[in-house]
Amino acid sequence: MLAKRIIPCLDVKNGRTVKGVNFIDLIDAGDPVQLAKQYAEMGADELVFLDISATLEGRNTTLNMVLHVAEQVNIPFTVGGGISSIEDVDALLKCGADKVSVNSSAVKRPELINELSNKFGSQCIVVAIDAKRIGNEWVVYLAGGTIPTQYNLFDWAKEVEKRGAGEILFTSMNNDGTKNGFANDALARLSEDLNIPIIASGGAGTIQHFVDTFQKGKADAALAASVFHFGEIEISVLKQELKKNNIEIRL
Length: 251
What we know:
With 251 residues, this protein is α/β, with parallel strands linked by helices. It contains 11 helices and 12 strands. It has helices at 32-42, 54-57, 63-72, 86-94, 104-108, 111-120, 153-162, 184-193, 207-215, 226-229, 235-244, and strands at 5-13, 16-21, 24-30, 47-51, 77-80, 99-102, 125-134, 137-142, 147-152, 167-172, 198-201, 221-224. An 8-stranded parallel β-barrel has the order 1-4-5-6-7-10-11-12, surrounded by 6 helices. The longest helix is centred in the N-terminal third of the chain and has 11 residues, at 32-42.
C-alpha cells in the first residue's frame, strides 16, 4: 500500500501567503518561501503552491517566486495558477516545480489535459477541481470559486482521468476554511470511481479530520493550510497520530 501524504498548501496573492473561509475573507499568513522551507524541514510529504488570483487577473504564476521556493525545498512541489499552455508548464518545470496544477483552463478547454499529459507525462499533471454542493449536486466552479459551470464533480473527474491527469486535487468549497472536516462522502465516491490518486482539500481543523479523510474518505493525500500556517497542528504530531490509527505514513 502506498503511504498517505500530508500536503501543506500555500495560497499566494500579491507575493504573500493568504488564507480565507469558503474562498473569501482572506488574511495574511506569511512569506511563502519561508513557509515552504519550514514545512519541508517539518516533514511535509509534498507542497502545493497556488497563485489564487492568477486566473482572475489574467496573468501567469510568478516564476521568480517559484524559483525561490524550489531552491528551499527537497520534497515534491506542485505549482498552479493561471496555467493554460505547454509553454506555461515548461517554464514552471524549468524553475524547479515537480508538478503543475490546472483548473479553470482545463474546464474551458479539456484538450489541454491531453496535451500536457502527452508532452510531460501524467505523473506531473494535477487537475484541481473546486466544487460546491448545491442540494444533492456537486457543481464545479472556476476562477477561484467565483464562476459556476455546467459540470458535475463526478462526471468531470472521470473525464479528467480519461484525458491523462495523474492526480486530482478536490476542494470542497462548502468545507473550505471551516475546520469542520473534509467532504468525505464525496471523496469516497471519487476514490471508488477513479484509479488515480485523490488529494482531499477543504475543512481540516483537527487531527481526527485527517484520520477520517484517510479512513472514511479513502483519500490518498490530505491538503491543508491554516492549521499548519498558524501552528494549530504540528506535522510531526499529526503523522504520529495517523500511525497510531494504522494509517501508512512516512515519519
